[in-house]
Amino acid sequence: METGGSPAVAVRNTVLTPKSIVYQKFGSKASYEIEEIQESAQNECPGLAITQKGPCLYRCSLQLPEIYVVSGIFKKKKEAEQNAAELALEKLGINPTSSNPTQQDPWDALVGRVKFLFSDEFLSSLHPLSGHLRAALQREGDLYGSIPASVIAVLDAKVSSLSKVIDSKVELNPYLVIPYVMKAAAQLSGIVITSAEQHWIRRQNPYPPEIIDSAIEESGSPRSFLIKAIYIPCSNEKTVDVVNLNVSSTGYYLDVVANQLGLVEASKVLITRPIGKASSEGRLYFPALQASLLEPSSDIGKNPCHSEGSCNARASYLSGEHIYGDAIFASIGYTWKSKDLWHEDLSMQSYYRMLLGKVPSGVYKLSRGAILTADLPLAFTTRANWRGSFPRDILCAFCRQHHLSEPVLSPLSISEALCEPSGSHKKLKVIDSAVEGTHCVNGCAVADGAKEAAESGGMFRCEVKINSKSQDLIIECSPKESYKKQSDSIQNASLKVLLWLDAYFKNLDMPVERLESYAHELDIKFYRQSFFKAFVLCQSIRMFQHSDSKEGRSHDSNSMPGHGIISLDIVGPDSGVSPSNGSLSCISYSATLVIESEKKRELLESSDEFEFEIGSRSVISQVEAAVTQMTVGQSAFLCMNLPPQDFVLAAADDSGNMLPLLSSKDCRLQYTITLIRVTEPLEDRMEQALFSPPLSKQRVEYALQHIKQSCAANLVDFGCGSGSLLDSLLNYQTSLEKIVGVDISHKSLIRAAKTLHSKLNTNSDADVPSKGITSAILYDGSITGFDSRLCGFDIGTCLEVIEHMEEDQAWLFGHVVLSYFCPKVLIVSTPNYEYNVILQRSNLSSQEEDPDDKTQSQSSKFRNHDHKFEWTREQFNHWATDLATEHNYSVEFSGVGGSGDIEPGFASQIAVFRRETSPLVDDSPKVADLEHQYNVVWEWDSNNRSCSAF
Ligand code: SAH
Ligand code: MG
């Protein structure tokens, strides 16, 4: 900020420092908290993770009984504290600088600036404001350059920053600059003339003709043009529509705008800040009806839209400012680049896109160029799999849009807390949160918590704070998860905040309790009063009330995959290559509005190559549901219910064609989708590329050995997925007669059923290894639940499954299997976390990395984003040994990939449990016998080869 001299220094010399004033008033009730900020975190460019550490900077937050402020960023802790105290005093209306003689300076500067703006010299300069003066001089008989004070207020940065120094309220209400401009002009008698009621300013004496000529000449021969703008009527009943502004190079465009608004002249028009992209000239123009807007005493915090009829809710929502009366949204004005009037046609589509851009998921959709199809993902898995704007950038854009302070992102390094002895405030804080995150119950050594957090993969946590322009804390997010990379922690924390804000914006009527509980789920705290105050303008409008996603997706059964699908046809041969969670799918698609009965179609959106990650909901659930059922090369015809009208209009080039269609009852949205390719998740690619035979094959072979040794007649595969183990077993001659698979993923089970069905039916005709199999069943159910049909099997396998459950569930599974199902042998495999360093060193995983990133670490902490944990050998040992001891099993450890004797052990670690005693034989029928919790998805029998319906 241009403060002209440093008030802080002046204050220190003459009166008390801000901090000592705060101390006098609040004593020990004032609590300062210093936060260290790594410079790299601040400067980090989107898409570029800087891991080199810059010098330490500091920010200070100050909590007083009634208010909370956060300072700017400073090199010294002391400066940050003084700044926080200064801000607090400012907010409390205590002015420590009142006796400061330099106060006079900004006034003089403002008067001087206004004088300069009406000088001969300024008229021919390249400044957006001089364009207005030149244009005004084109009016018949105007030789004075009569322009509205509002134009000066909004276009001259110096005027507005000086006004802010004079009166900090200007920060909250930019229209307050106008009275200051008028006041400054009033001091320039003999130079400029003002009209207090009209709010215009002009020269006292005409510009000399030669000055006018030379300034105007350059603009070439007279031209006139029609510019398309958007008319937003004040009354919500009237529709928003395109309006033509007939502008000519020999007139003043603001007069045209004024006429269009039914006003006599330009000085009655107020202009907003640019809306949308900071670089755009899109602004709202509206009548200066409300004199109170220009009163320093007006309270921006209360919502006049509720009390006064003249408030334009749609325009206010769009601009984030109070707008009164009808408004025009136009992209027109003078720039720094040329003396010509710059302009651009706006369409209804641009209006709807602006509206969309107010909402986090809307910003994401726009950044993907897929308004109907994309959706803000529920998870940031890896940088490599993310498409579109990054969460952090969306959050920054959101805050700017809504006139909030820049979000404060504070990545905390856990490793630092570990290495250094405790002491500073910051370190203690880090350790606290680490303990919390790992549920350390016995008051154990604080460092253990941090150590565990570090072992579980992460070294960074990031906190996010969002403050209003007046530095009220609105939202605070302290995620429990930790990440290896600082930038990942930043993106994930930002995403949490975005998801929550998005849920709120999609349903502004959401009861506060819901909002609270969703916030809790996302580790967010929000401060009701300041939150609702910050978004007061948004509440006056209910435009984005999506019928299909009212409560944020996590609460919402309506957005279950596939909801809203009317029909889905998949055509083309099954290539066997199908997407799974974590894989990247590339599709081509087109989305069309269709009225079948009238044979009408309008293309809304299409793409030849659209890549997205499966499983993170980065596309609408209907499209994801379709794609997960396809194989590469197949096409799908998906017919679904209409999305919200605002989306359609934002996607459509020509809203004129769409509106009549949309009002028809049998209007549907139809997608044609072709699955072009699938890139498997990193884990699968690594397992195939780095191990020969692939790791998955080695696991199957390992299981096979045990099957052979034990002469097992029947087998259960716990968490069988798409049946890769069961399918492979059919290629070998074994003693098996009955095979069973259980999984909770219905989709995978269907896939497994298809493969096993065709293989078993073909095989039983020929003389092939699997001839011995007489029965095969697939159950849909959770392996942590009980089903008596799984009791007493010879062998159980559970390959690469437990890490997909929460740790307590993994324990529960162990108890259920060993105490109820009691297989003679149980084989459990899971990734060895310690082996990850080797995988990360491989070329394959570094392809995933940002090329600018110098670190060796992988962008996600685990091999697969669906993993809830990955254990070290010690952790796995602990799990298996405890379970074995408790349930009378012996256990042996082994693995596949790498070697058990060489650090860091096998790539996949395996525990083989063997039952020591036969289970108690009890002839009386157990209650459990009756318990059938699982659903049969598919059943095959060698005698009748029948199968139950899927
Ligand atoms: N065993 C298979 C699949 C491993 S992927 C293979 O080696 O190829 C992990 C599988 O565990 C997924 O199919 C997932 O649906 C399943 N899973 C996760 N939690 C489960 C639970 N509680 N009950 C049953 N299956 C579960
Ligand atoms: Mg796994």
Secondary structure elements and their pairing?
Layout: H1 7-14, H2 18-26, E1 31-38, H3 39-43, E2 56-63, E3 68-70, H4 77-92, H5 104-117, H6 120-123, H7 128-137, E4 147-148, H8 149-155, H9 157-166, H10 177-186, E5 192-195, E6 200-203, H11 209-217, E7 224-232, E8 241-248, H12 253-260, E9 269-271, E10 282-287, H13 304-307, H14 313-319, E11 327-333, E12 342-344, H15 348-356, H16 360-368, H17 391-401, E13 408-413, H18 414-419, H19 425-437, H20 446-455, E14 460-467, E15 473-477, H21 486-506, H22 512-521, E16 524-526, H23 528-534, H24 536-539, E17 565-571, E18 584-595, E19 600-613, H25 621-627, E20 635-640, H26 645-651, H27 655-662, E21 667-679, H28 682-689, H29 695-710, E22 714-718, H30 724-729, E23 738-743, H31 746-763, E24 775-780, E25 795-799, H32 807-821, E26 825-831, H33 836-841, H34 843-847, H35 873-887, E27 889-896, E28 908-915, E29 935-941
Parallel strand pairs: 22-23, 22-25, 23-24, 25-26
Antiparallel strand pairs: 1-2, 2-3, 4-6, 5-6, 7-8, 7-11, 9-10, 10-11, 11-12, 13-14, 14-15, 15-16, 17-20, 18-19, 18-21, 20-21, 24-29, 26-28, 27-28
Bound molecules: S-adenosyl-L-homocysteine and magnesium ion.
The gist of it:
35% of the residues lie in helices and 20% in strands.
Number of strands: 29
Q: Which percent band covers the strand fraction?
A: 15-25%
- CATH homologous superfamily descriptor of the largest domain: Vaccinia Virus protein VP39
Q: What's the number of domains? A: 5
Gyration radius, rounded: 34 Å
Morphology: elongated
- Structural class based on helices, strands and sheet pairing: alpha+beta
| Shape-level CATH architecture of the largest domain | 3-Layer(aba) Sandwich
Low-confidence stretches: 1-14, 40-53, 99-103, 297-307, 419-457, 544-558, 845-859
Question: Overall mean pLDDT score?
Answer: 82
Largest sheet geometry: 8 strands, mixed
- CATH topology of the largest domain: the name is Rossmann fold
**Bound heterogens, unique:** S-adenosyl-L-homocysteine, magnesium ion
Total helical elements = 35
What percent of the residues sit in helical stretches (DSSP H or I)? 25-40%
CATH class of the largest domain: Alpha Beta
Q: N- to C-terminal separation? A: 67 Å
Strand order of the largest sheet: 27-28-26-25-22-23-24-29
Catalytic activity: small RNA 3'-end nucleotide + S-adenosyl-L-methionine = small RNA 3'-end 2'-O-methylnucleotide + S-adenosyl-L-homocysteine + H(+)
Enzyme class: transferase
Domain DRBM: 18-93
Pfam families: dsRBD2 (PF17842), DSRM_2 (PF24995), Hen1_Lam_C (PF18441), Hen1_LCD (PF21224), Methyltransf_12 (PF08242)
